Amino acid sequence: MEKGNKDRQKGLHLFISSLGPTLGPCLSALIAGYIVERADWRWCFYVLCMFNFAIAVGGNLFLKETYAPTLLSRKAAKLRKLTGNQNLHCIYEVATGETTFGKFYVNLSRPLSVLFKNPMVLGLGIFMAVAYGCLYILIVTFPAVWGEVYGFGKGSTGLMYLSFLIGYIIGIVFFQYSATWVLHRLIAKNNGVSKPEFRLPMLLVSGITLPVGLFWYGWGAEKKLHFMFPAVGAAIFGFGLIAVFYCIQNYLIDMNPRFAASSIAAASIFRSYLGFAFPLFAPIMFKNVGYGWGCSIFGFIALATGIPFPLFVILYGERLRLWGNRIMDRAQAKRDAKNLARLKRMQEKQLVQSEQHKDATSESS
Question: Which InterPro entries does the record match to this protein (predicted)?
Fold first, then answer.
């Protein structure tokens, strides 16, 4: 029961965190439409700066540290201060004494290492990147579709971004309960033992709904059907997009908890690049082939990346996951051994200095 509650809470928190990269672009476009219509376009950036400043200040003031290695390191430091025993260290403090450049290099290079050495991160990261790139393609086509094809004003065009919001809300409610239910059923069938692969079955729903949403939106705009037709397609796409972030991030966290942040950062590399690159050539492509075939091309790409590899991971991914984890664990073990030797040398040096100080004190007395 306790494990189930933790899984449910973890899923809810990940759903909430996934609203940032999914809901943010849509709400910002909606708000920006009214800002540009009633004020100056520069106010879009003014409002963004003020909002980010408020979030940064609030986060630093009110959010607490939750990373276990940091908490244990702080506890060990507190115990050393209280007891005077400088030999009290936790396992995560082996990096003590490592140079700032060394820490910076490791933290910068590890996501790239995870991305190219772990096929699970690479394959699932590509699907997440394609989904995120398609989201930005839809976002940049909204002004042309609703403004030029349907004759909406800037404010009304901004309101059409609510179709994504409706899809997100339905997706959150549906996937929160369905993904948790599937997870618990698979755990029960596996004699109560959980596996990261149990997080992925609902990802196949996204592999279907994302292309369907793109086809629906593109051909509705191409044939100039009722404006609700492409709006429903955008909502279907938003519905499926929620599961992409939820399932993949859950899997990356469970796959290797110690390197969860690096795995998510590695997957975000592709996501950010395609989110930047797709809108650059999408307008030209839509102008040449139309909204129908343009969205269909991206729909087929989403289908090709969203079904085969996730299905392979669900059925046969455990061995590949363990192989990738062993590579990362060996690299971390070498770093830990090197830093542990450095820490021992530091302690021996401190011990010698302490003995010399005692001898000097006794001689002077």
Answer: MFS (IPR011701), MFS_trans_sf (IPR036259)
Distance CA 309, CA 262 (A): 21
The secondary structure of 329-344 as a DSSP string is HHHHHHHHHHHHHHHH
- Residues 262-316: tens digit of each pLDDT: 888 888 887 888 888 888 888 888 888 989 999 999 999 999 999 998 888 888 8
Site of tokens 């191409």: 222
Per-residue pLDDT of 185-226, as tens digits, reads 988 898 888 888 888 899 999 999 999 999 999 999 998 888
pTM of the model: 0.78
Residue 254 lies inside a defined structural domain of this protein: yes
SS3 118: coil
Phi-psi region of 194 (alpha: psi -120 to 50; beta: other; left: phi over 0): beta
| Residue among 216, 209, 266, 215 at smallest CA distance from 238 | 209
**pLDDT for the residue numbered 7:** 59
Number of domains in the chain: 1
CA–CA separation, 68 vs 52, rounded Å? 27
Q: Determine the Cα–Cα distance for residues 156 and 153; give it in Å rounded to an integer.
A: 5
Is there a domain that residue 124 lies in?
Answer: yes
Asked if the structure places residue 3 within a domain, the reply is: no
Structural domain harbouring 137: 118-333
Instruction: For residue 24, count other CB atoms closer than 10 A to its CB.
Output: 10
Residue 114 to residues 155, 306, 332, Cα–Cα distance (Å): 43, 21, 12
Instruction: Report the largest interatomic distance among the alpha carbons of the chain, rounded to a whole angstrom.
Output: 98
Torsion, CA 52, CA 54, CA 57, CA 60, rounded to 10:
-70
Q: At what angle do helices 228-255 and 203-222 cross, to 10 degrees?
A: 160
At CB < 8 A and 24+ separation, what contacts does 358-363 make? none
Please report whether residue 245 resides in a domain.
yes
Q: Any idea what DSSP says for residue 198?
A: G
Report the C-alpha gap between 285 and 274 in whole angstroms.
16
Q: How many residues does the chain have?
A: 365
Closest CA to 277 of 131, 132, 127, 133: 133
Q: Are 313 and 171 in contact (CB under 8 A)?
A: no
